[in-house]
Amino acid sequence: MSTTPYWQERPMSDLRNTAADPGGGAAAVNKRRFLIRMITVLIGGMFLDGYILGIIGPLSSTIAEDLQLSSLMEGLIAAAALIGIFVGAPIGGWVTDRLGRKPVFMFDIALFTVASGLQFFVDSPGLLLAIRLLMGIAIGIEYGVGWPMLAEFSPTHLRGRLLGGMTIAWYSGFMVAFLFGYLLINNTDLSWQFILGTSTFLAAALFLGRIGLPESPRWLWSVGRRDEARALADKYMPDDTLADLEHEDVLKGTFGMLFSKQHWRATVFTSGFWFCAVTPYFAIATFAASVLETYGLDDPLAGGVGLSALATAGVVATVLLIDKLGRRALTIPPQWLCAAVLAVIGLWTGAPPAVVLTLFLVFSFFNAGYNTLTGVYPGEVFPTEIRGAGTGFAAAVSRVGAALGTFLLPISIETLGTGPTMLIAAVVAAAGAGLSQWLAPETKGMSLTEAAAVYSH
């Protein structure tokens, strides 16, 4: 195996020419159909994540009344999926690097389908808590396999948009579930158990859609199964990634490699960036109505809806621009801007409500935009042998941030006040900006082999 970096052996112009000439005929058509199918079933997993987190909101009061939940149990059930993701993501990522992508993404959707189906039969708080925890573990496993697998099959020139599309799917799943749950619980006689269990139908469809999908050729190559890798790559992978495949190293990945001299920067950046991006988002988005009300807004609920709408717009804009402007341009400046916006909100305690709302809308748009990159970078900067483990570990760290932001914000507002709380959020955003200024790489237009090597030199 040559030790010369791929981009020195073969100019980037050759890669672009390969990407521009994808071939024709039945083979090219079959590859496009396969890619569409792969994108659909993997992005569908992220839609499910948003769905199970969104569906619980409009049902929470009904569930609490029916099961006679204490405040503690109600909070645990609401947070169970997040706890499960924290557990499942690193385990799933490690297993997918050891056993392969295919068995893991089939197992996790099967586990989710079974767990989701059990929601139809819930009759006690403990059972509901256990089921939601199990569903979260399944979604966490999906984090560790979904993004890596999509990255490994994506054409270089579309990889950023496809990985970013996972974030659009999450926001869409959350909003669809919230609206769906609200309409069903208020306008039908369906039980809350059935409404919660609606995720089973989508999960079953995704399970069927994944049957027969192949193993990742990049993973096969990384474990030395070269003949199988070449055969599957020729049949399924985009032509602009075929040559790059043979520049993968044959290495056995270990969890400890995430903290090695070669890869610690990728681990610190992806984990720290993701943590700092989601911590203020989950805090502010979860309590948007109450936060805005403290600033004197007459209709805080409408303001909260506006924040969600602007967040979705920010994700879509980032996905459309990511393969044109590059990763760093959409990662670093927006974080500094959001830190400044939160600082202004925290310091200008007497600001008119309209100004405060405008500032929160600006934050929501740009924060959601750079949050999109949290799903792009892990799939690119970790090599194949630890891509799953790296993505899963970063996802787990991010859930710590989400939980901390959600748990601590109301306590901070009550004890410190809204202004100091927003200043703390500004510090977290600034920390993410500084980390990204230092470590965020530019991976636009690079093959996965190139992108994974940016921290190695």
UniProtKB/TrEMBL annotation:
Keywords: Membrane, Transmembrane, Transmembrane helix
Domain Major facilitator superfamily (MFS) profile: 38-444
TM helices/strands, residue ranges: 34-56, 76-96, 103-122, 128-150, 162-185, 191-213, 266-289, 301-322, 334-366, 386-409, 421-440
InterPro entries cross-referenced by the UniProt entry: MFS_dom, MFS_sugar_transport-like, MFS_Sugar_Transporters, MFS_trans_sf
PROSITE patterns: MFS
Membrane topology according to the record: Multi-pass membrane protein
Annotated Gene Ontology cellular component terms: plasma membrane
KW Thylakoid (keyword) present: no
CDD domains with a match to the protein in the record: MFS_SV2_like (cd17316)
Alphabetized Pfam families for the sequence: Sugar_tr (PF00083)
Superkingdom classification of source: Bacteria
Signal sequence extent: none
Subcellular location: Cell membrane
GO molecular function: carbohydrate:proton symporter activity
Stated family: Belongs to the major facilitator superfamily. Sugar transporter (TC 2.A.1.1) family.
Name used for this protein in its record: MFS transporter, putative metabolite transport protein
Taxonomic source organism: Geodermatophilus africanus
Taxonomic lineage: Bacteria, Bacillati, Actinomycetota, Actinomycetes, Geodermatophilales
